[in-house]
Amino acid sequence: MEPILQISDLTRTFNKKLKALDSVSLNVGSNEMVALVGPSGSGKSTLLRHIAGLVTSDQGSSRIRALGLDVQQSGKLSKNIRSIRSDIGFIFQQFNIVGRLTVLDNVLIGSLGRSPSWRGTLGRYHKSDKYAALSALERVGMFEYAHQRASTLSGGQQQRVAIARTLVQKPSIILADEPIASLDPESARCVMELLESIHKDDGKTVIVSLHQVDYAIKYCYRIIALKAGRLFHDGSTLDIDAKVFSDIYGARQETIFKATNSFAHGNADINLNKAVSTATL
Amino acid sequence: MEQHFEAALKQNDSRKSLTQTLSWGIVIGVLFWSWNGAEMNPLALFTDADNMLEFAEGFFPPNFHHWELYLKEMVITIQIAVWGTALAVVFSIPLGIMSSENLVPWWVYQPTRRLMDALRAINEMVFAMLFVVAVGLGPFAGVLALFVHTTGVLAKLFSEAVEAIEPGPVEGVRSTGASALQEIIYGVIPQVLPLWISYSLYRFESNVRSATVVGMVGAGGIGVILWENIRGFYFGETCAVMIIIVVTVSLLDMLSQRIRKMVI
Ligand SMILES: Nc1ncnc2c1ncn2[C@@H]1O[C@H](COP(=O)(O)OP(=O)(O)O)[C@@H](O)[C@H]1O
Ligand SMILES: [Mg+2]
Fold first, then answer.
1. ipTM over 0.95 threshold
2. Of ligand 1's atoms, which has the minimum distance to the CA of residue A46?
3. Which ligand 1 atom sits nearest the alpha carbon of residue A177?
């Protein structure tokens, strides 16, 4: 069976010389939960934005297929990119919800891609979409805020609204670009647990880029590392070792990794977990 | 060490004083250059002082004998401004979006912007004269004149608001598979709406003022009366009309300012 996501020879150059992505090839099977790591500027956001068809690659042999359809090829988006986007949810570091709309109106935006275009354009959402939006809000614990303006919420709450919007979208693949990087530890845990539940309970494929290695090891089975736009490591989180991390980030991080890894795969006590999860890479 | 700082400060000061001298030079140069062309003659204010005093005396007391007619025409003036502004707002929404470089390719926004520049460059009075010829004397010519000129102004202001939006929320809407029109409706409009409303009200205020003069070229409203009174040397009546204009315009300005404060 074809993998749910196929990336081959993906290259993207900025300003004629900076290769933000340098012939990256990888496949993701359905029902995987993958962590995407790498130092800042290594190309994580650029990779995820290409998969979602929000930007285009260089011309050439670059190609991305998702769910058996072309997303883009040789720098050209597929003709039916809108319907492909509606099947790929995207969760942003800065939430990217519309501050002046209510929480409910933001979540309903998730149904635009699936609804007949006149309905979405006129704001005449179907009753079933409204129910779906409210139940998504219930799931992320934001039901009581449905009629509040989104800009009045805290960062963690805004991210939960963004996740509810993605839930309403009912995508098969969910991409999350550093979804917890601007959140406090408690909100970060809540968001990661929601992503885990979307993966485990709803059976969706999740790719999440992370800055915190301990979260990657705790929630994901597979870890992909980028370094300077190249695919640097791809393997299971179980047999990853400290050397890989020191190679990605530099030697300084080794000690943090050791503490984290013994927690994630052993029965380390809760306090250690707390201490480690605040140590970011 | 301190010497080092002193040198840096001195350099900073001398650079500042150079630019200051230069800009004053330019300002004074431009004023001199414009003196003859504008036939500047401040002495006339003194030599013709008696004449002017006599002229000014003619305005008092104001003659409100025909106040009902004046009020009726003032209402028509406001109605001209209402329709001129309303039509302009409706047309400025698509034209403003078509002038925004963050939403459309250059071959759309460049021609649209140039067209809007042209509409803005030509004064309402000129459009009023043209429309009087085209559709005949009366308020409708005034409505069209305000509509065309205001569209040029509002489309530019609207597009400036659009170009200042945050791209994140628009991308958020795009990522759900929404259409380009839906991106604008849900991602762009909510961000610019308060500014758009404020600009529209502001233009309404200014259109009420413009509507009082388009009548002078026959495009309806209180300007017609004003012009007839001035032409007939009825200065008492002229004064009454001017008072009505000042009071109405001030009241509407205050009202509109209130609303603008509320939306922002
Ligand atoms: N729109 C852009 N224009 C120019 N350079 C960009 C753009 N987007 C990303 N880059 C560059 O591409 C590289 C990868 O960036 P990014 O994908 O954001 O990294 P990461 O998400 O891993 O921190 C960086 O060097 C960044 O400066
Ligand atoms: Mg990034």
1. no
2. 17
3. 21
